[in-house]
Amino acid sequence: MSALLQLLFLIFSVKILGEAAERIGVPSVMGEILSGVLLGMLFLNAETDIITFFAKLGSIFLLFTAGYKEVSLKNLKFESITALVPTISQIVFAFIFGFAFGRIFELSFLESLFLGVAFSPTSIAVVLGTLIDLNYLSSRSGSAMLSSAFLDDIIALFFLSVVINFARFNRIPPILSILLIAGKILLFLLIMYILGRYLFPTLFIYAEKMHTREAVFSLVAMIALFSAYLSELFGLHSVIGAFTGGILISEIPLAKLPDIQSKVDGLAHGILIPLFFAFIGFLIDPYALRNAGSFTFLVILAALTGKLAGGFIGSKAIGFDFYESLIFGVGVMPRAGIELVILTIGRELQIINQEIFLALVLMVVVSILISPACMKWVIQVRQRKAGQE
Amino acid sequence: MDRMYGQDNSFSGKNLSQGGRKREAEVRENRGKQSGKHIGFSESDSPSKPRDERHETCLWMTIDELMTRDIVTVQENTPVEEIFSLYGKHHFYILPVVDDKNKLVGIIDLDIVLEILLLCLVPREKHTPVTAIRSLGSTAREIMISHPVIISLNATFKDASDLMMKYRLDHICVIADGKLVGILSKRDLVEEICRRRKMEKLREKTG
Is A129's CB within 8 Å of B129's CB? Predict the structure, then answer.
C-alpha cells in the first residue's frame, strides 16, 4: 500500500517539479531529481527495493531509447578527419582531468579511472534549446557540437564497460585478463550484430502479423530487456546492452513505426526515466550537502574546465576563431542522462563512495544550470563584437 | 517494371533534380487534376474487369489496382529548398526519396518539413540531436526517414488496411523488386469502397 502511494507521489512530483523547472527555464531533469530528494525527506520508510527496481528499468530504458531514437550510425560519418579533432580533444581532456584529479587527491587507481570516465560524456540536449533560440545551430560550432554528441556517448560507454571489468581487479589487471575482457566485449557485440541483422527483422515481421494486442511494442520492450540481460551475462552492465539493442533495431522499419515509437516514449519518458532521475535524488542525503566542501567544489571545477579547455583547444586547432571555440567548449560542458546512469553504476559497484557520488551529482546539476546561461552570454558577446565590426 | 512506367505516367521513375523539371511540373498539374478521379484512372487501367461483380472480393484485390502510380519523387541529393517549394505547390503528404535506380531509400513527410521550418517552435521534448541535425540538412538524404514502411505490389487490400488501421499509417510506399512503384493511402482504400457502393446502388436502380 505504502509502495503504491510512494510511486504515485513520485510520478506526481516528477511531473509537477519537472514542469516547474521547465517554466523557470532549466531542463526538467532538475525538478525530477528534486522530487527524489523530497521523497527521501517525506517518507521515512521508503520502499527502497521497489524504487530501486523501477530506477534500474529507468536506466535501461534511458540508454535503450538513446540508441533507439537518438543515435543513428549514419550520423557518425564525419565529413573529414579534422571535424573529429575537437571531439577527440574534449573527450581526452575531460578524461585526463578526471584521472589526474583522482590521482592528485590520492584516490585509488580504479576511482581515478572512474572519475575519468564520469567526466567524459556530454548531453548536448541541454544547450540545444539555447542554440535554437539564438539561431546559432547552423554555425560551425553548432554542427561540430552535434557531431560530437554521438561519439561522446559511445566512447564513454565503451570506457565504462572496461572500467566495470577492471573493478574486479582493483588495479591494472594482467595482460591476459585485458585480452579476455576485450574478447568478451567483441563477442557480445558480434552476437548482437548477428541477431540485429538476421533475427530481429524477421521477428518483427511475425510480430506484426500477430493478433495479440501490442505485439510489436512488446517485442521492442523484450529486445530492450533481452539485450540488457545478455550484456550482463557477458560481464558488461545491462545499460550497455540496452544501448546496443536500441541502436540495432533503430533501422528496422516495423520497430520504428511512429505509433510504436510514441508508445516506447510513453513508457520510457512518461514513467521510467523520470523515476530513474528521482532515484538519483533519493540517493542524495540532503543533510550531507552541508558538509560538501572544497572537494566537491574542485570536482565540479575540474569536470567543467576539462570539457571547456579540451573543446576550446581542439576547435581552435582546426581554425575556429576565439568565440567559436569558446562556444564549442561551453556546448560540451553539460552532462545529464547518460552521466547519471554511469554514476549510479559506479555507486552500485562500489567503485566510488558516497562523497564522490554526491560531488559528481552536484557537478551534473551545476553543469545543467550554468551551461545554457554561459552559452547565451558567449553568443551574445560574439554577436555584439560582430555588430561593432 | 514497364507496366508501371509504360503509360502516361512515365515520369514516376524520373526525377526532379535530373533536369526534367519542366515536364515534372506538367505532370504535377495533371496529377492535381487527376487527384479527384484516381479511380477513373485505374478503371481505364484494367477495363476488361467488371468491378462490381467482385464486390465481395474487394478485400482480396491487390493494391496494384488501388495505389497512386504517378507520384513525385526526389533524389537523395535534391536540395532542401526544392523540397520545400514542392510542398508549397502541391498537396501531398509524403515525398519518397529514391536513388538513380528508382530504389526507395527513404521518405520525407509533412511532419519533417514542419519541424524544419518551425524549428523555433518545436516542443522542448524534441530538442534532440536528431532533430537538430535534420534541421541543418541541406539535401533530401540528410532529412529523410531512412526506414520507411513498405508494402509489396502483390499485397492485398486487406494487408494494407490491416497495416493502416493497426499502426495508424496514412501512406505506405509500394515496392516491386525493390523499386518504388507507387503510394497507397487511406484515401485510396476509402475511395475504392465508396466507388463500389455507388456502383452497387446504380445496379440496384437500373436492374
Answer: no
Neighbours of A348 (CB within 10 A): 12
Name the residue among A133, A252, A254 with its Cβ closest to that of B120: A133
Q: Return d(Cα B84, Cα B7) in angstroms, integer.
A: 28
What is the Cα–Cα distance from A331 to A169, expressed in whole angstroms? Answer: 36
Considering only CB atoms, B127 lies closest to which of A125, A257, A260, namely A125
Residue A36 sits in a domain of what CATH number?
Answer: 1.20.1530.20
Domains and CATH numbers, chain B: 2-76+93-108+143-201 (3.10.580.10)
Query: Which cell goes with A131?
Result: 542554440
The mean pLDDT of A77-84, rounded to a whole number, is 65
Which helix (H) or strand (E) covers residue A207, if one does?
helix A200-209
Q: Which of A137-146, A268-277, A308-317 has the highest mean pLDDT?
A: A268-277
Whole-model pTM?
0.82
Task: Give the residue among A336, A312, A316, A279 at the shortest CA–CA distance from A156.
Answer: A336
Q: What is the pLDDT of residues B139-180, one digit of tens each?
A: 888 888 888 888 888 888 888 888 888 888 888 888 888 888
With a cut of 60, say whether residue B2 has pLDDT above it: no
The answer to whether A386 and A136 are in contact (CB under 8 A) is no
ipTM of the complex: 0.74
Of B128, B148, B168, the CB nearest to A259: B168
Count other C-beta atoms under 10 Å from residue A134's C-beta: 15
Look at B136 and A253 and tell me if their CB atoms are within 8 Å: no
Domain count, chain A: 1
Answer whether B136 touches A (CB < 8 Å). Answer: yes
In which band, very low, low, confident or very high, does the pLDDT at A40 lie, cut at 50, 70 and 90?
A: confident
Q: Which domain holds residue A94?
A: 2-388
**Across all residues in chain A, what is the average pLDDT?**
84
pLDDT at A242: 92
Q: With CB atoms and an 8 Å threshold, state whether B133 touches A146.
A: yes
DSSP string for residues in B135-183: HH--BHHHHSBSS--EEETT-BHHHHHHHHHHHT-SEEEEEETTEEEEE
